[in-house]
Design goal:
By secondary structure, the chain is of the alpha+beta class. The chain has 4 domains: 1-92; 153-234, Periplasmic binding protein-like II (D-Maltodextrin-Binding Protein, domain 2), CATH 3.40.190; 239-318, D-Maltodextrin-Binding Protein, domain 2; 335-438, Alpha-Beta Plaits, CATH 3.30.70. 34% of the residues lie in helices and 26% in strands. The chain contains 13 helices and 21 strands. The strands form 6 sheets. Strands 5, 6, 7, 8, 9 and 15 form a 6-stranded mixed β-sheet that branches. Helix 1 packs antiparallel against helix 2 (29-65) and helix 2 (29-65) runs antiparallel to helix 3 (75-86). The longest helix has 37 residues, at 29-65. The N and C termini lie far apart (98 Å).
Length: 446
Amino acid sequence: MATAMMVGKSLAALGTVESSIFKGSSGGGSQLVWEKKSELGQAAQSFFPKAVKLRNDLQWRACSNHNSRPPPPPAAASNSLIQQITEPQKTWQPSSGGPKLTKVEQQKPTQSSSSLQTVNDSGPPQVSTKDLVSLQLPRPLSIMDLALPPRHGSDLRVAYQGVPGAYSEAAAAKAYPQCEAVPCEQFDAAFQAVELWLVDRAVLPIENSLGGSIHRNYDLLLRHRLHIVGEVQLAIHHCLLALPGVRKEQLRRVVSHPQALAQCEHTLSKLEGCAREAVDDTAGAAQFISAHNLRDTGAVASARAAEIYGLEILMDGIQDDCDNVTRFLMLAREPIIPRNDRPFKTSIVFTLEEGPGVLFRALAVFSLRNINLTKIESRPQRKRPLRIVDDSNNGTAKYFDYLFYIDFEASMADSRAQNALGHLQEFAIFLRVLGSYPMDMSPMRA
């Protein structure tokens, strides 16, 4: 009982000192609190074992009178309770600036690092800090992951459509020097390769100065959730290729990409008795001739394709216009953060309600803010190509429903672009920013 009274007195004194500290008494009170807590812990070490023993003796006596077996003494629970009270978790040191928390030495584990540490038999398992580190959890994402700088090394994998020797491969090398170019059979495969993390980027053509827009890639931009992170412009230099020893008079057909055939229309029309056939890509045509040893077939492709597949150049520079340039888009899973320190371009897609002057209002939001438009393209909506509108005279009227793709010279970090898109969103049914990216200001080369 004397020990119990000592514990009670220590608790009362501890409460008095703590209340005086909270009321703003002397700064040495924190040291007094620690001394009282230590005194309480020492008293508890001698009091709790005696109290537990006394309780167990009373239970044994009560059960012996009723001829029943008593429950086992909960020694583990009482010992853990004593440990919680007697072990200090914080060390307080008095100073002029108030109490400071110092580092407490960690206890050495009693089991191996791979085992689970438990408080008691009934409590939930707890994993030690060392075990958590060994799990190697993934690093949390941060804002830096949204603007990864271009890695001009061999570890950057870039997808392109075609086979080695294609113009898209040359565009990928210009956009990301020393990258690993990954060929894909179709444009869809290049989009999917980026989405499935098989590659880091994709470089795909979007328009040509002679052949116009590549509509397939416009449709894929809306179907997939990739972001435009850059552009690259490449001068196209076409050559007429054939197997070694073959003359152009012996050719009976010329194969190449439809765009390449159209860009060389004037030259190819001079080849008498020579048919033209379209294939998936220019370098693929050269590969096809080399693989099948076709001596009556020529290909329109690059000089690099002739070098790769062992063909000879019969005619050099056969494009109708020397200013033949193809614009390629650089696509990634994450967008880049737009800036104002260099020229930027922004690409959007939107659709409008049917009505007079609606498209004029949409374009006026850029003109009012002195924003230059560099590209306007319209594509039909595949899910709803026709829109039926009620007409009071003739019942119904059908209109084609279009998507509008626009490129304008402004960064999304520019307040003019933000205000323009905010204005456009007031009457646009659908609006999506495909990307805000730096403009290609480098010199063009084939």
